[in-house]
# Entry
Amino acid sequence: MKLLDLYCGVGGASVGYAKAGFEVFGVDLKHGKRYPFTYLRANVLDILRDENYIDQFDVIHASPPCQTHSITKHLRNAQGNSTSKLDLIPETREALIASGKPYIIENVVGSPLIDPVQLCGSSFGLKVRRHRLFESNMPIKGSICDHKNQGRPIGVYGAMGDKPQGLDNATGKYVYGGQVASTIDEARMAMGIDWAIWSELVEAIPPAYTEYLGVQLHEWL
# Structure
C-alpha cells in the first residue's frame, strides 16, 4: 500500500511507515536532499487539491508546521528567534477530510488536534521523550509513557548542549533537570535517526512512532 507523507521533513515518520510495510512518498517545500524515499518538492496544500495525484495513495500522514503551538516557542523567543508562523492544521485537516482518504495528523502537545492519541519515546526504548499527538479518522491507539525506566531523557531541541528540559507551567520559566544532546551522534541515537543533521532532528518524528502506528493502519486498511 502507498502512503503519502506531507510536510515530511527529513523523513523520520516516513522511515517508520516504511518499516511497517508501506511504500512511502514525501512532499515538502524544503530541498529534501536527505529524504530517503521518493520526494516531491511542492506546496502541500496545492498537492492536496490535486485529486489525480492524491487518488494513487491508500493513506495520508501530515505533520503541519507546529512552532505556533510548541512550548519551546518560549525558548526560541528568549533566543531572539521568531515564532510568528502560520497555523496550517485547520486548512490541512479540511483538505484531508475532503480527499476522503484515511489520514493521520501529527503535532505537538498543545496543538488543536481533535481527539488525539499521544506517543512518547520512553514507550519505545528511546532516550528522547518527545511527546507527540496524533489525530486520525481511523481508530488508532497511543502509547503508555515509561519515564521511570527511561531515566533522565536526552533533549533534541534548541541548540546542542543547552540545559533547559521543560517549561514550569506555574512560573512560565524553564527548569533545569536534564541535558540537551551535546553531539550529533548522541542526538541521532536518542531519536533513532542516523541520517539527519541537527536542524532536521529538532523537528523530526522518531521512526518508532510511525512504525507503531503503521502496524495499526494495516489492520484497518
Notes: Residues 2-144+205-220 form a domain with the Rossmann fold fold (CATH 3.40.50.150). The first helix runs from residue 12 to 19. The chain has one domain: 2-144+205-220. The two ends are 9 Å apart (CA to CA).
